[in-house]
Amino acid sequence: MENTGNQSIEYLLEVIRALGVDTSDIFGVNASDGRVTAYKISDDTRDFALTDELYYEDFINKYIQENVIFEEKVAVERMCDLSHVINELSDKDTFHIHFKSIRNDEKHYHILKFVKVNISGESDSFLMAFASMDKSETKKKTAENDELTGVLTRQAFMRYAMATMKAHPETPYDIIIIDIDRFKLVNVMYGDRMGDNVLAFTAAAFSDFCSSDGVIGRLGADRFVCLIPHRDNLEEDGIVKLIDDIQKNAPVNITVKAGYYDNVDERIPLSTMCERALLAVRSIKDHAMLKVAPYNGPVSHKHMRKQSFEANFENAIREKSFKIWYQPKYDAKTRKIVGAEALVRWISPTGTLTSPGEFIPIFEEDGLIVRLDEYVFRTVCENLKYWYDRGAKVLPISVNISRASLHYEGTVLRYKKILEEFGLPIELVPLEITESASIKDDRIKKLAKELKEAGFVIHMDDFGTGFSSLSSINMLPIDVVKIDKSLIDYIGDEGGEELLKHSISLAHFKKYKVIAEGVETEEQYKFLKSIDCDMIQGYYFAKPMSYEDLVELFRKLLAENRI
Ligand code: C2E
Ligand code: CA
Ligand code: CA
To answer: In terms of pTM, does the model score above 0.90?
Structure first.
């Protein structure tokens, strides 16, 4: 249709007037070869042909891409398919498609009319007329957009993001969530108005980042989400800069964290995709140094347990769900009780018992162990005090203290204060420090020295598990060496027995007492006694027991004059 004769123009004009649209966007399509010609309709009614050879598919797809609001793109694409149009026009003269576009934050309504015409004698041809229906409304007014920030509401985000992914099944997508740290503080410190400003600013920066091919929504008070076609180096090239940009330019000082789930698995629900990105943000909530985190595969059981332990820690302290169990220590020669070790357990409200091997490593990682250790220390002091004040015979109860607690500022002073508060002699609560925590660490040595100088009795726990056990005996200021179960298990093996003998002589040479832990059999006990081990702790004599059971055991032994 390079050129249409005047007659045809007259004819087209008539049709166009009949369409009742006021537009210059009128195109003729030659359906047989798929070529498109544009008609400019103005007062002097001149036609022109598109200079570039343009084919219907390219033309219409570009038009839809640039104009149609994304949630309608798929449907509009389908209805504009050339064979579909021809089919529609086979038994009627016109058909319409309604669609919306967004320009300058405003939603516009359009109608696309297809009219069967015979342009310059070609039978397979039709006109397309794009008309604006002038029923615009501002984007901000619609319920789909968050009033304050203008981005989509949570529900609208879900709808649009889903439609976008469906419309482009071949495109890989990334989901990013950003979260303002302690946003409530902004409101408290600067007022709600400033809080609003900060949110609007953050949303705008995030929108820029997502650009036009992304869908962005507000997930919660101070949390935004976006879906974008996958970008390589998303973290280094994108999110990190975005966060720096927000933090640098925000109206007040804020900290922003981001989590992302890239190349989403589109077979899972969108809500799960978002949860994964959320999980990623949460994983760095308390890490001052980290700004961005990716989602790393499905949540492992271990990770969930970790999160649940951490989340329940405060409650457990408050509700006294951490219980202290006591494992008696016996004099190897007399078989009399000489003390006990405090071992913590976590008893849930439903009564399930979790052993320290499960939660201590987690609390060691995140630092909560410092509070737990102190809690155990205090509880032990409380229990001892009860008997001490009544003039009962009181034996020392040792408490485990982790490396993190040792490092923690002021631990020595605080523990001393607790003892003073209860009025207990310091030697009633020895501290067990693990060998592996001590040997390579000069600070631990220093702290151990501090503890010693403050008057604490120090037991070196887990002896035999470290690299240079024998030399650690030499280097630390200690009172008791506690031989680990793994060495006790060597009993019966010649080399192992030799090592045990030498360790005990060395300890005795340094004037330390020796206790063997994890003693389970008569054979082990007898051998240990034969090589002058001073004390025995292990299932052979007694397992760890509740406080009530310990008191009961004491009563019994006292009555039998065996303490
Ligand atoms: P640990 O300090 O070496 O405590 C000895 C562990 O060996 C205890 O396990 C005890 O129940 C177990 N045990 C004692 N005798 C035997 C025996 O004859 N056979 C066997 N197989 N095991 C025996 P538990 O109570 O599960 O504690 C595990 C670890 O958790 C402790 O090892 C200690 O490192 C840590 N832990 C426990 N309570 C605390 C605490 O309050 N603070 C800190 N920082 N760590 C604690
Ligand atoms: Ca111990
Ligand atoms: Ca031990």
So the answer is: no
